[in-house]
């Protein structure tokens, strides 16, 4: 009959073998490379300025982005739909406050955040849908974010603009990187076709001149370092009509919007179980090392028990 000592040694050895096997096969089944999770709960970015400017009048301005992950989505690609709206005003009826609204749909690489096919933009004001070619990330940077400069998609430009690393911080126990994206005043009529990008101005004498929609922005993006998910957006935006030389002739929309810190904490907090590739490797190696140690102790105990007999 086996002694209690040898039974304990066998149990320790078995546990060690189980840990080694688990450590070896776990990377095949666990989300250990910080790719975009498919079950995110908090995916709404709300940027508000209670004293913005719309058509020259002071009004509360709200810009909102809401991302949905739809089918089909798989291990490498997620089907993404992003709704974007801008409201200006305090009417209880949101439709009365609506400045613009539209949706972006595209397949996203879950690691890099980049579209894998042309993005499609649909707007209640522009029909039919427009296809936009871009390989730049938008609301999700590449996993394992570095302190460097990234080209980041701007939906108003319908193109990418550089976002420069400016600092590091922590939100909800997660390391976050902050980036600043600056868009110099840009004539949107020269960037892409849209009925709103040009306008005819009429002066007091009835003379007509053509003006163009200009856009500029200074944006702070707060990004979860491991996953690359954007968890905060603050932005100063100015859109206006100007003449050929860029001289402002009519204000359209101007605001200095900020995102509530509690929303950023919710967005970062939901990522608490997502590991970076480096963290995943460290956990795997630690589990395997513990398994090897237990196997060694178990075998040593079993051999010692035999010698004792």
TrEMBL record:
Pfam families (alphabetical): PorA
Highest taxon, organism lineage: Bacteria
Protein name in the entry: DUF3068 domain-containing protein
Organism (species): Corynebacterium liangguodongii
């Amino acid at each position: 009959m086996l002694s209690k000592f040898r039974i304990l040694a066998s149990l320790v050895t078995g546990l060690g073998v189980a840990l080694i096997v688990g450590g070896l096969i776990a990377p095949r089944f666990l989300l250990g490379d910080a790719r975009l999770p498919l079950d995110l709960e908090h995916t709404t970015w709300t940027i508000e300025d209670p004293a913005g400017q719309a058509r020259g009048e002071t009004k509360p301005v709200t810009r909102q982005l809401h991302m949905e992950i739809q089918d089909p989505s798989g291990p490498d690609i997620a089907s993404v739909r992003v709704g974007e709206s801008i409201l200006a005003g305090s009417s209880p009826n949101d439709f009365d406050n609506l400045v613009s609204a539209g949706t972006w749909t595209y397949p996203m690489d879950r690691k890099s955040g980049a579209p894998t096919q042309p993005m499609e933009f649909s707007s209640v004001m522009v029909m039919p849908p427009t296809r936009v070619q871009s390989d730049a990330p938008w609301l999700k940077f590449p996993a394992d974010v570095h302190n460097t400069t990234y080209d980041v998609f701007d939906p108003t430009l319908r193109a990418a603009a550089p976002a420069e690393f400016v600092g590091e911080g922590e939100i909800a126990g997660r390391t976050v990187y902050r980036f600043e994206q600056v868009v110099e005043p840009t004539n949107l009529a020269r960037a892409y076709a849209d009925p709103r990008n040009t306008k005819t101005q009429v002066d007091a004498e009835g003379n007509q001149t053509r003006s163009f929609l200009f856009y500029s922005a200074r944006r702070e993006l707060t990004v979860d370092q491991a996953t690359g998910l954007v968890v905060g957006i603050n932005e100063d935006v100015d859109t206006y009509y100007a003449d050929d030389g860029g001289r402002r002739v009519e204000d359209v929309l101007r605001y200095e919007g900020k995102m509530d810190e509690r929303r950023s904490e919710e967005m970062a907090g939901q990522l608490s179980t997502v590991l970076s590739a480096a963290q995943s490797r460290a956990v795997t190696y630690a589990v395997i090392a513990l398994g090897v140690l237990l196997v060694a102790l178990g075998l040593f105990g079993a051999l010692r028990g035999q010698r004792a007999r």
